[in-house]
């Protein structure tokens, strides 16, 4: 889902400066108002100000105009304010004739307003450049996210196609063991394809283990065709699921559920499988798949088992730096422990 671009009305105020770039008449009116207000204040405070402050109310008008509308309008405001100060407040007043002190006053005014305008202009240019770079980075990140999701989608589709081809090929195999092997391979490829679709939510956020395990259990039960068996997920401690661990974790849990369906309920139409996610201490997360089926044979040893699914689960647990084990009792418990 594409993130909408930020509208100009929602941009921070500083990133919209200078204002009214496409409506210069607004800038001209506001500038004229600021200059007129500065002149009014200077005239009104003439008797209360000591001699030698001809520009005191005009500096703010130049700074505010430059800040709001840019260097061009700030320069115009500086020129008009300078003319007003020169004519009305620099001796001899009401004249453009200058004496020695007038040259110094005009030079000081010119230096101050040019410095203010240049500094404001540089700051606004830097702020505009920063905003453009931030928008470019946002667009690149969005494009990368879209491309990655498209890749996930295509990989998932290809895996589903491969699983379908294996299922078709199985029909041409007469050997029962070969048919079973192709059926298991097709099931695992289909599962990996569905996992790829579930790795990220619609807004691109990483899923938690609970959000991942619930549809996984439903997928495995649906693929088995055993409608009388229920599977529930109980979460005592949820945790985020990294994309690197998603596929091996899902395969391990799927193998444990499939093993419970195949062996624990081999001659039963109903049963219950419970997937429990809990924290063990500060460094481990435990996932248990419990069933109320027949349980394990008395002499069962997972290391000596010839079950391909259990061998895959044990191998994948080792790749995740975890441990996979089966214990008997009233039913069977498959236990996977992983580092946090």
Automatic annotation (TrEMBL):
GO molecular function terms noted in the UniProt entry: ATP binding; protein histidine kinase activity
Pfam family, one: HisKA_2
Enzyme Commission no: 2.7.13.3
Domain spans labelled Histidine kinase: 150-340
GO annotation, biological process: phosphorelay signal transduction system
Keyword Ligase attributed: no
Membrane association type: Multi-pass membrane protein
Catalytic activity field: ATP + protein L-histidine = ADP + protein N-phospho-L-histidine
Location within or outside the cell: Membrane
Database matches in PANTHER family: ETHYLENE RESPONSE SENSOR PROTEIN, TWO-COMPONENT SYSTEM SENSOR PROTEIN
Protein name per Swiss-Prot or TrEMBL: histidine kinase
Protein species of origin: Stakelama sediminis
Lineage: Bacteria, Pseudomonadati, Pseudomonadota, Alphaproteobacteria, Sphingomonadales
């Amino acid at each position: 889902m594409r993130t909408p671009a930020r509208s100009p009305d929602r941009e921070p105020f500083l990133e919209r400066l200078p204002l009214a770039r496409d409506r210069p008449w607004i800038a001209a009116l506001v500038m004229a108002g600021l200059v007129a207000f500065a002149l009014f204040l200077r005239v009104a405070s003439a008797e209360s100000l000591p001699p030698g402050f001809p520009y005191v109310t005009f500096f703010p008008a130049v700074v505010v105009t430059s800040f709001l509308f840019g260097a061009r309008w700030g320069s115009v405001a500086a020129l008009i304010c300078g003319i007003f100060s020169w004519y009305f407040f620099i001796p001899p007043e009401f004249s453009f004739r200058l004496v020695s002190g007038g040259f110094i006053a005009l030079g000081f005014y010119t230096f101050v307003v040019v410095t203010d305008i240049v500094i404001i202009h540089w700051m606004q240019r830097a702020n505009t450049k920063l905003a453009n770079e931030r928008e470019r980075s946002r667009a690149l990140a969005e494009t990368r996210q879209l491309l990655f999701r498209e890749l996930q989608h295509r990989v998932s589709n290809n895996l589903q196609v491969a699983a379908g081809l294996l299922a078709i090929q199985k029909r041409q195999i007469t050997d029962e063991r070969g048919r079973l092997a192709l059926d298991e391979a097709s099931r695992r490829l289909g599962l990996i394809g569905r996992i790829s679709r579930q790795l990220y939510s619609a807004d691109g956020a990483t899923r938690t283990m609970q959000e991942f395990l619930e549809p996984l259990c439903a997928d495995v039960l649906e693929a088995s065709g055993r409608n009388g068996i229920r599977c529930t997920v109980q979460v005592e401690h949820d945790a985020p699921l990294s994309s690197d661990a998603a596929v091996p974790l899902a395969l391990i849990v799927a193998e444990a559920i499939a093993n419970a369906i195949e062996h624990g309920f081999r001659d039963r139409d109903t049963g219950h499988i419970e997937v429990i996610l809990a924290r063990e201490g500060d460094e481990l997360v435990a996932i248990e798949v419990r069933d109320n089926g027949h349980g394990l044979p008395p002499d069962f040893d997972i290391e000596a088992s010839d079950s391909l699914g259990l061998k895959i689960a044990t191998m994948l647990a080792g790749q995740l730096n975890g441990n996979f084990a089966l214990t008997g009792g009233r039913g069977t418990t498959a236990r996977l422990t992983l580092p946090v």
